[in-house]
Amino acid sequence: MSYSNAEKLIELCIALGQSKMGMTISEIAERFHVTRRTAERMRDALERLFPSLACKRDHEGLKRWFLPDDVVQPLVRFDAADFAALKASEDMLRRANRSEDASRISQLGEKLRTALSSRAKSRIEPDLEALMQSEGIALRPGPVVRIDPVALDNIRTAILSSRRIRCDLRLQSGRTIEDARLEPYGLLYGLRPYLLAARAGGSGVKQYRLQSISGIALTDDAFERDPGFDIVTFSRGAFGVFQEEPVDVEWHFRPEAAAEAADYVFHPSQELERSADGGLRVRFRAGGLLEMAWHLATWGNAVTVIQPEDFWQRVHEIQVGRWTAVPGETDGEP
């Protein structure tokens, strides 16, 4: 058996041990990017190595394979790269102004280290120190919005339990709605943190800057979530976090910037096309023109906006509108 096949079997063993429902042959094939027949051979090899491999049928009659925890636990090993990834995640969260989540990641790393044997620690720590000295995360300059951890905890509890929150809501006009009731659906993190929520009795989910919401308190009032809401679909309607009416966008990168631009995912719906001059055309559909303009500024004269034709005029109008308003709700003013 080759090293790669042995690694796959160990990975399959861990996957079958951590899955409460077990895995079907089709799911094994999808997980390891192999054919169904290869997935069956992997299962057979695992059964020879671990006679405790068990099978049960789910409510659809599909066979699901699983392993007991006591078989899997001795196979779970950590290396320096695992802990370096945790540390990098902690640093990125902290610089994204998500200090509470960063602390959780830090505590997770400490708990995992505590669970390691002395032998494993002595094996990992020299490599981890070398990795930490050789890798870093670039700082993002600019202001950072403070987030009240108690308020954030209340919001997350409300999201998980589908309960309304009570708060004071400062609108973009400068007017404040006292004792507003919001139905939280999720959070979006960008240059500023946003709450995705519906107003009680309102029309659909909108986004609110967290700094425009104060006095957040959890209520006992339950609400029924819109079953059609999906945060991924919602966020894909924008370039960044600004929710605006989507438009058809097309950019042209000059030949000298085409190779670098091709390495970027500007938007999940993007389509790339090499132009006759050796440049690159990028097409997608989204709102958030001001954030597009901020990003395009980093490319200088290496990029030209083809669509919308009045892009820069629209950006100017958006800037004027936002600079003359009090920061607050972005999309929900009655």
List the main descriptive attributes of the protein structure presented here.
Arc Repressor Mutant, subunit A, 11 strands, alpha+beta, 5-stranded antiparallel sheet, disordered C terminus, 12 helices
Query: How many domains comprise the coordinates?
Result: 4
Shape category: globular
**What is the number of helical segments per DSSP (H or I, 4+ residues)?**
12
| N→C terminal distance | 67 Å
Seen as an oligomer or otherwise, the chain set is single chain
* Second rung of CATH, namely the architecture of the largest domain: 2-Layer Sandwich
Output the radius of gyration: 25 Å
Low-pLDDT sequence parts: 323-334
- Supply the CATH class of the largest domain: Alpha Beta
Strand content: 15-25%
Q: Compute the number of strand runs.
A: 11
What's the arrangement of strands in the largest beta sheet? 6-5-4-3-7
Pfam families: WCX (PF25583), WYL (PF13280)
Protein name: Putative DNA-binding transcriptional regulator YafY
Organism: Gellertiella hungarica
Keywords: DNA-binding
Brief overview:
This protein has helices at residues 3-18, 25-32, 36-49, 69-72, 80-95, 99-115, 118-134, 149-161, 231-236, 255-261, 289-297, 311-323; strands at residues 54-57, 63-66, 163-170, 176-189, 193-199, 205-209, 213-222, 247-253, 271-274, 280-286, 303-307.
